[in-house]
Structures are given as structure tokens and as C-alpha cells.
Specification:
Layout: E1 4-7, H1 13-24, E2 28-33, H2 41-48, E3 53-57, H3 63-77, E4 82-85, H4 100-128, E5 131-136, H5 149-168, E6 174-180, H6 201-228, H7 234-245, E7 254-256, H8 264-284
Parallel strand pairs: 1-2, 1-4, 2-3, 4-5, 5-6, 6-7
Length: 285
């Protein structure tokens, strides 16, 4: 059955592929992106020409823009069945090398935007007593890499949102799923899309060549694995379609899609869930 689906961050990468994939499957897709009349005009025109896709201008870092976009969509379509929180920005560098303002910018895009979207969409979903929210996070959802601390921290907050809201929204028939994609060759990772990086140059210089060498080695390893396992971003779009198509009540809380992990991500998620169940039982029984 066709669903009305709102996706953020559709100008490039996972978001763009997902919009096309879901539209081709017959769903009504609202492709959210900012700067549709200038910077992203070409992307907006390209997606807007595809059957079943409507492009909506939205700045996920702005309350008024989010509320205006969601109100417009609900007025036209009556409801939003699925929200996909995809918009995000990456960032690299030493944690000490990040200014507070730079971390704040990172969290505004990766964390607060997700909360804005939830708060804008949930009243309608609660009224319908039905909905699905898919959040794109990172990795196996439970560990942090050096030189990527603010970025991964922001994604772990979204994991917390997903897990907590699954319980809070259960009475309203609203499901929440996080996707852990691992490393894929999208604009976020190949340098063509600006990130929010460490900006305190004097601190970075004090760490010297040793930190630079470690950072470069990490990057080389990640990109090497990405090539070795032929990581195709379409995997994420197909995974999202699979989640959308699943019967209600059968969707998992976490949905890892990372071939590089070779099953260790699934093992980690299952172990975490089992330990959590024991922990909760210890407190509630």
C-alpha cells in the first residue's frame, strides 16, 4: 500500500537515492532539502521531475522552516506515514581541537534537527495512531572512533532518541528504527560536501605529526575497506524500502547495514539488547 513519506536531506547521498527508490516503488515521497532556489536548484529540479516525488524546501536547523514544511505537507496529503531523518553533516579532527561553537553547529544539524522533525510530525502521527520514523545513525551504534568524536556522539544521541521513543510512542502505534550504515562512498565521506571539522588550529598544531599520522591511517583504513567491500549506497535506500514494506510490529529497533562489519554489528546489537533486558529486569522485578 502506498505511503506518504517525508525524507530530509535529499539533495545528495542516501537521501536522494532513497527518494528515488521509494518513489519508484509507488510511494508518495516528499523530498526535503534546503536552498531549492539556488545552491540545490539542480537537485530539486531533478527529483521534482520524477513521478511520485514532490520537493519541499526545508532547513532542518530552523524551527519555523520545519513547522512550515510539515504543515504544508499535512494540509496537502492529510498525514505523513513515514518520516526519514537523513539530513546530517560529518566532521573530523581532534576533540580538543573543536571549539564549542563548532560542536554546537554539529549538534544543531545532527541532533536538534531530528528532535525538531519529531516534534513537528508526532502530533499528526499520534492523531492517526500510526507512523514510522527511520533515523540514519552510524556504525554499530555503540562505540566511538578517534578523530570523529563529535560526529559519532551526535549519532549516539539519535540512537538514544530512537530507543526511548520506541517505548514512549508504543501506545500510539508509532514505530522507530535506527539504521547503522557503516562507511559508504557518499558526498558526506568523499569531501565534496562540507563538514564541520576541528577549528582550533593552535591546538591541532600542538598535537603535531603523530596525531596527523594516526588520523591519516584511520582514513586510509576506512576508505580501503569501503573499496574492498564495494560499499554501494543503494544498499541503504533498499534497506529503507524494506523497512517501509515490513508488516507493522515486525520492524526491529536497530537495522544494521554494514558489510564491512561482517556480522559483528548484528552480534553487538543482539548482545546489547540481551544485556539491557537483564538490566531492566533487575530494576523492575
Amino acid at each position: 500500500m502506498s505511503k506518504t513519506i517525508f525524507i530530509t536531506g535529499t539533495s545528495t547521498g542516501f537521501g536522494k537515492l532513497t527518494a528515488v527508490t521509494l518513489a519508484n516503488a509507488g510511494h508518495s515521497v516528499i523530498a526535503g532539502m534546503r536552498n531549492t532556489n539556488d545552491k540545490n536548484a539542480a537537485a530539486a529540479k531533478e527529483l521534482g521531475a520524477i513521478e511520485n516525488i514532490e520537493v519541499v524546501d526545508i532547513d532542518v536547523t530552523d524551527d519555523a522552516s520545519v513547522n512550515k514544511a510539515i504543515e504544508k505537507v499535512i494540509t496537502k496529503y492529510g498525514k505523513i506515514d513515514v518520516l526519514i531523518n537523513n539530513a546530517a553533516v560529518s566532521g573530523f579532527g581532534l576533540l580538543e581541537g573543536y571549539s564549542i561553537d563548532q560542536v554546537r553547529k554539529m549538534f544543531d544539524v545532527n541532533v536538534y534537527s531530528v528532535l525538531r522533525m519529531y516534534q513537528a510530525v508526532l502530533p499528526s502521527m499520534r492523531k492517526e495512531r500510526n507512523g514510522l520514523v527511520i533515523n540514519i545513525t552510524t556504525g554499530a551504534s555503540g562505540h566511538t572512533l578517534p578523530f570523529m568524536v563529535p560526529y559519532i556522539a551526535s549519532k549516539l544521541v539519535v540512537e538514544s532518541f530512537t530507543e526511548g521513543l520506541q517505548d514512549e510512542l508504543a501506545d500510539y502505534g508509532i514505530e522507530n528504527v535506527s539504521i547503522q550504515p557503516g562507511v559508504y562512498p557518499t558526498e558526506m565521506n568523499n569531501g565534496s560536501k562540507a563538514g564541520i571539522h576541528a577549528d582550533k588550529t593552535e591546538i591541532i598544531e600542538e598535537y603535531g605529526e603523530s596525531a596527523t599520522e594516526k588520523f591519516n591511517a584511520l582514513g586510509t583504513a576506512l576508505f580501503g575497506k569501503m573499496a574492498q567491500f564495494d560499499m554501494n549506497p543503494q544498499t541503504i535506500a533498499d534497506g529503507i524500502l524494506e523497512l517501509v514494506s515490513m508488516k507493522k510490529g515486525e520492524r526491529p529497533l536497530r537495522f544494521p547495514l554494514d558489510a564491512i562489519a561482517q556480522g559483528t554489528d548484528k552480534e553487538f546489537i543482539e548482545a546489547r539488547a540481551n544485556i539491557k533486558a537483564k538490566w531492566v529486569a533487575a530494576y523492575t522485578n
